[in-house]
Amino acid sequence: MEKTLEYYLGLAYTRELIPEPEGGWFVRIKELPGCMSQGETPEEAMIMIDDAMAGWVESALEHGAPVPEPRGDEDYSGKFVVRVPKSLHRKIADAAEMDGVSLNQWIVAALAEALGVSSTGSSAVGKDPELSKLLSRVVARANQNQYDQFTKTIREWAEENIYRVDDADE
Fold first, then answer.
1. What letter does residue 73 receive in the DSSP assignment?
2. How far is CA 14 from CA 26, 67, 162, in A?
3. By C-alpha distance, which of 91, 128, 122 is closest to 109?
4. In angstroms, rounded to a whole number, what is the distance separating the alpha carbons of residues 118 and 138?
């Protein structure tokens, strides 16, 4: 089967929508390097990225360049193991108890905050520079596969819990 522009445009590519500090919205297609756009509203940005994506794929097809396809969810289990020093484990457990949440909930929120994905209200990470530094080192030491898995988990959680943008086609 020859893969056409319509074929690629019908695939479920990852759209990352990010508010701009000065106003407006930035959006990119994660799997297509350099495929990005912007808009004044989330809806406008999503419409603009569809046009940018069509141009990106069309140009790649015309030049015989490969067009990456989206990765499926089967590549990610939603779980990964991280070993931490006992002192860090204790600090994280204390912080979770202070916030009244489970250790897992606290770690997900802290990782999201460390990645700039969300601000979840009261978090001990921002209040404790030593804990923030240790968390940054833990994140930096994770291998690429773990990093990819946790980034996807964080983004999925953020999409479900922070801001939902309906596809422009719906």
1. G
2. 14, 14, 17
3. 122
4. 19
Tally of CB atoms within 10 A around 110: 24
Q: What is the pLDDT of residue 162?
A: 53
Residue type, 77: S
Q: Residues 15, 27: contact at Cβ < 8 Å?
A: yes
From CA 109, how far away is CA 101, in angstroms rounded?
Answer: 10
Segments in the chain below pLDDT 50: 119-126, 142-144, 163-170
Q: What was the pLDDT predicted at 49? A: 94
Kindly list the structural domains of the chain, giving each domain's residue range(s) and its CATH number in brackets, ordered by start.
5-70 (3.30.160.250), 74-161 (no CATH)
**68 neighbors 28 (Cβ within 8 angstroms):** no
Question: Alpha carbon 142 to chain centroid distance?
Answer: 16
Give the Cα separation of 124 and 106 in Å (integer): 9
Global pTM value = 0.47
